[in-house]
Amino acid sequence: MLQSMYSGISGLQNHQTKLDVIGDNIANVNTHGFKKGRFTFQDMMSQQMQGATAPDGDQGGTNPTQVGLGTQTGSIDTLHTQGAMQPTSRELDLAIEGDGFFRVLNPDGGETYTRAGNFSRDSEGDLVTADGHYVLSDGGEMINIAEEASNFSIGSDGTVTQVIDGEPEEAGTIGLATFANPEGLESLGGNLYGETSNSGAANELAPGDDGAGVIAPGMLEMSNVDLSEEFVEMISGQRGLQANTRIITTSDEVLQEIMNLK
């Protein structure tokens, strides 16, 4: 069989994966706190037909003769660049300007992390995510805004201040977590990320401490997906897929000619 057919198949499969990544980016263009993916290619190992030779006397050196065997997935990266800020004027909508993630308590007792700050209060006054997971303070405790509080506010340093009987009182400080390698985090769905062995351990901080971002109250961070860029990548991926399909078709025609030899 012609090797070009197998090379074309590998190109077809990997361009399909590239389009899958682009499709996910476009689908999440309006998902708060979403971080886009990026697909990269790598060439596969090459078939060595002749090795390189060094110059010897009156004979010069020669380069290796190799035939590539197609392409493979290089990486699917998550790009944690800052998304645009959307003003909402809602006191429990929070965005992070800079590095870091909100700390979220899972029902199993573990922690996950998110950039989506569309929070609310439950019936007991605890600060929760849209899915009901507790938002944690810089000390790892739940943040409770008392029912009798007449007013409350959240500062850029994450401090939650409530007013009870006319007196201001601190209810806690929004906790953030930073990572040595945020691209190593695992996407868990529901706008949540989980720690992995390559993300590094979470550095638990208050906003503004040791390089962590600050809180922008009354704002939400939008997806960092650029639609114009995604459409260009989609066209490039589509053309690459069509070109590899053409390789397979041409290889098949060559095989047909060989079969017709008499």
UniProtKB/TrEMBL annotation:
GO terms for biological process: bacterial-type flagellum-dependent swarming motility. Residues 95-161 form the Flagellar hook protein FlgE/F/G-like D1 domain. Residues 5-35 form the Flagellar basal body rod protein N-terminal domain. One of its GO terms (cellular component) is bacterial-type flagellum hook. The keyword Hydrolase does not apply. Residues 47-74 are annotated as: Disordered. Residues 217-261 form the Flagellar basal-body/hook protein C-terminal domain. SUPFAM superfamilies: Flagellar hook protein flgE (SSF117143). Belongs to the flagella basal body rod proteins family. This is Flagellar basal-body rod protein FlgG. It comes from Salicibibacter kimchii. The lineage of its organism: Bacteria, Bacillati, Bacillota, Bacilli, Bacillales.
